[in-house]
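Proteins fold reproducibly. Take a sample protein:
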Amino acid sequence: MKMDSSHRDKLMFAEDTPPADDISLQSALPLSRLATQLAHDLNVPLASILAYAEELVDLAKERYGIDGFNQIVEYISIIQQEANQCKEIVEKMLTYAKGLEINLEIVNLHEVIEECIQKQALTVNDKPVKICREFDTHVPNITTDPTGLRQVITNILSNAYDAVDDNGEIVIRTRGQDKAVLVEISDNGAGIDEGHLERIFDPFFTTKAAGKGTGLGLAICNGILQTLKGRITVESEKGKGTSFKIWLPKKIKVILT
């Protein structure tokens, strides 16, 4: 079952809880069009920058010795990194503006979490982090969008990996509730300043160093969960760690209007 979140179709809890914010589904349309045009306008010059950077590498190999080549490649590498950072911002901005295209499936929550853990492990260069699983074996399969769910869990896991030092610990808990399931991802990292917590889901807000984050990851997660009629909260203590709690309904359905 597919639909775009910009349409007027509404997702509801199976028990017919009213949707939290119908108007946002319609008001997202102009923002989506603007983001699409902006992404196109920026991606064209970014593609040229990256292409010419590759050409410069080849040219340096032909014309300069090893020492000169290494210095040129170092500068070109910086150009590529910065251009790719811009490209990532554009892509995430487009994702945030357009929203999630819903594809409801019956999903095994623990299998999705394991996929995200394995994927994250491949991207952290063997950083020695302990992953503790505290899974509720009675959690049922849920009806949700697996792509959106993976994106949320992967983003929270990535932030947790960034927050902990070597030999840090990340705990992933699941729990079944009456009409929802809970996923809690906690780390024993540096924690977040209390003054930053109220802005943590705002677009373009980040606590990471310049160039290390777009400030859109958690905003996208929040948007995805709103679309899926779930929610996300965060608790953190400076110097002790951070915990994100994700609630998802066991079943959601589409009501056409």
